[in-house]
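Exercise: predict the fold of this chain.
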Amino acid sequence: MTFPETMINKAISMKKKLVLPEGIEPRTIAAARTVMDKGIASEVFLVGAIEEIKKTAIENNVDLTGITLVDPATSDWKDDFVKEYYELRKHKKISMGLAEKIITNPLSWGAMMLRKGIVDGMVAGAQNSSGNVLIAAFTIIKTKPGIKTASSSFIMTMNDTKWGVDGNMVFSDCATVIDPTAEELAEIAIASSETCKTFLGAEPITAMLSFSTMGSSKHKNIDKVKEALAIAKEKRPDLNIDGELQLDAAIIGSIGEKKAPGSKVAGKANVLIFPDLQSGNIGYKLTQRLAGADAWGPVLQGFAKPISDLSRGCSIEDIVVTSAMTLIQA
């Protein structure tokens, strides 16, 4: 069974509710139909002006039967949502009028539906930038208690099953935190380890990557990785995390044994933590393009409730699989 099939089957068994706030976006409408038809969600909400949603559906030959349409401008939830958003943001000295304007934006509306427990997961980004999706998440969903850093992971599915967990690995952070501090990098490592458990059903073997292995070079960038490792181990001594490791030492057994003898991670890693966004973004795209790997995500980590960000170049299948991945976190 492929990774997408595994995610879809698990989501079907959970019968959770999904909101897709970009309700007038054609791929999103088509994905909503597939999610309902396959039973990936027990209920799917599309957010937006209802006549526009219907018009787009007709133009793209999509049947909306069974899909719930919500217009923030006319919804019975509007007053409650405005009040709650105002309470969340009144320390920023916003007015009730501004609160209404912001919360009736479909992204904010979908996030509030998630916050209020009306739905179990939210997927967006086919039409909106990652920045806009993250603003809605940070201001309305917020991070989990004790977590300061929200980050992201990609599940990389390789053609060769020798890598990671039957050919699947977690790469992080490749989409969110540009230049993490040591504390942020530690939280990324911890969150990504949990992502491995959730999606790959395996114990994480987490490598903190660098251009150095176990002190082979000296530089402030390496010191940050070492400090992050120490913080991660102190916070979660139960997790199998090690570093700093060069990529080859992290994933190739013979090199790991030579460069980092005694390490329980070297040569066996199924979770790769990149030291910054530049290296992470380059790394996952190199793997995707040169090795022909599939990149599923980005999965947002650290938020209080499941929310996922899409690439604006995503396909209908990407939205469907991401929806399943989001709901199984609920």
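Check your answer against the key: The CA atoms of residues 47 and 113 lie 10 Å apart.
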